[in-house]
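User: I need a structural model of Alpha/beta fold hydrolase from Streptomyces marokkonensis for a docking pre-check later this week. Nothing fancy, just the predicted structure tokens so I can convert them on my end. Input:
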Amino acid sequence: MGEMIDAGGTEFWVERRGEGPDVLLIAGLGDVAEAWQSQLDGLADRYRLTAFDNRGAGRTRLPEGPLSVPRMADDAAALLRALAVPAAHVAGFSGGSFIAQELALRHPGLVRSLVLMSTCARPDAYFRRMTDFWHWMVERAPGERAMLEAFYLWVYTARAHADGTVDRFVEEALAFPHPQSADAFRRQLAAFEGHDTLDRLPGITAPTLVLAGELDIATPPRLGRAVAERIPGAEFEMIPGEAHQPFQEAADVFNARVDAFWREVDAAADS
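Assistant: Understood. Predicted structure tokens for Alpha/beta fold hydrolase:
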């Protein structure tokens, strides 16, 4: 069960689970803490996991004024400090990985390690055309179900559309009592469209693992590889047969890989 936590004067909805080294999970566009359910359930025997609703998603209010990735990174830092977490393994996916990059650059002392899933450092022409359509889609879709069904075409594998997984996610989203407004979706999306860390990535000092789904069309593996090449010592791995959100579709594979990475980081720090 989650709770509201005051961090820097803003109330954030936070879910915490487990005991052990601290892990901060940062969700992407439109997603809430529950997006990480497979990690909250599957890794809580080894870690103390914290997931939260970003500004403008779920139970965390949308602020007045501009919304930006650096501002959301400062939110994550304020949340860690409010929870008295001196440093955490940080994992972010999609837009959450943009926030995680900025967190590592702006607040390096808070980041023990970095996992970037479905990431990029600077949106390319394809990404911009895709997100331009998403702005139109959320405004013009004939209903919330139609919008979700269209949006999930970029997110999940054809396998998940065929086997009922996407249908289940759509029903869960429709039943969620704190839906994101169209305005909040567009404002979050605009913030992620403005993300650009490409020239600053060499300043990241935390051990970093970059993961990409082989079939991801929203943030293709080449974008993740470019991120890994810019961060000193970063590892890059592609997950075969997966799309934008392997942490949900292939949770066991994702959990095993990040667990191994975090164990390696902790062992190196203790040696």
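Before docking, keep this in mind: The CA atoms of residues 94 and 118 lie 5 Å apart.
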